[in-house]
Amino acid sequence: MKKKKYPNCDHAFLQAKESKTEKKGIAIKQTAYHEAGHAVMAYILHLRLKEVSIIPTDDYLGVCIGGKRGNIDPEWDSSHKTRVELERRAMQALAGNVAEHLLTGKRHRAGSYSDYHNVVNLLSCLAGDDEITYYADWLWHRTKATMGIDYWWLAVENVAEELLKNKHLKNKCVREIIRRAIDEDYRRKTGTKALQSFTGKTA
Which terminus has fewer CB within 10 Å in the chain: N or C? Predict the structure, then answer.
C-alpha cells in the first residue's frame, strides 16, 4: 500500500465533521429550549398558544405560534390594564432568550433579533427611545426570575426534551407537559402523591 502523503488528513477530516455535527446538535438543543421558553411563559402569563415547533423554515430555526389575541391600542388606551398586557407580551417574547441563557449561562442575542424587535415595538408605546433599553432589560430580568423557579424551569426542560423528540407540539400537549412538570416538582419536594387539582385523582 502506498504511504499517504498526508497521514493525518483523514483524522483531521473526521474531527472537523464530528465538530460540525456536535455544533449542529448544540444549536438544535438551544433552539428547543428557546421555543420551550416562549411556550412555558405563554402558559405562565395566560397568553394563548397554538403550537410550537423546531422544524426549520426559510427564516427561522423554530417558531412559537400564539393564538388569537385581543386588539389593544395604547395610543387611545393608556390604562394600567393596557400596560400590563404589553408587558406580558414583551416578557413572552423575551422568554426564548432567557431560556437559552439559563441553559448556557450566556445571552445569545444573535438568535433573538426578531424577538427583541418585537419587544421594542411593544415597549415603544410605553416609553421613550432613551428608556426602552432599560425597560426591556428590567423585563428580561423579571422573566429570568420567573423562569428560574424550579417547577417552571423543569417545565421548560421537559417541553424542550419533547420538542427534540417530536419537533412539533400542539397547545394541548404543551399544557399537559407543563402540568406534569409542576406535579413532578411538587411530589419530588414533598414526597406526596400526584396533585389532585391537576390530575382529577391521586396516583
Answer: N
Q: Give the separation between CA 18 and CA 24, rounded to whole angstroms.
A: 10
C-alpha distance from residue 50 to each of 5, 55, 65, 140, 144 (Å): 58, 15, 6, 23, 23
Specify the pLDDT at position 80.
81
Which residue from 53, 77, 78 is spatially nearest to 63, judged by alpha carbons? 53
3-state helix, strand, coil in the chain (%, to 5): 65, 5, 30
What are the angstrom distances between the C-alpha of 2 and each of 13, 64, 112?
Answer: 20, 56, 52
Side chain identity at residue 104, one-letter code: T
pTM of the predicted model as reported, rounded to 2 decimal places: 0.79
Domain count along the chain: 1
Q: What is the pLDDT of residue 71?
A: 64
Closest CA to 133 of 119, 147, 143, 152: 119
Which CATH number do you get for residue 162? 1.20.58.760
Q: Is residue 4 part of a domain?
A: no
- Cell (9 digits) for 170: 400542539
pLDDT over threshold 70, residue 134: yes
- Domain span holding position 116: 9-170
CA–CA distance, 174 with 51 (Å, rounded to integer):
8
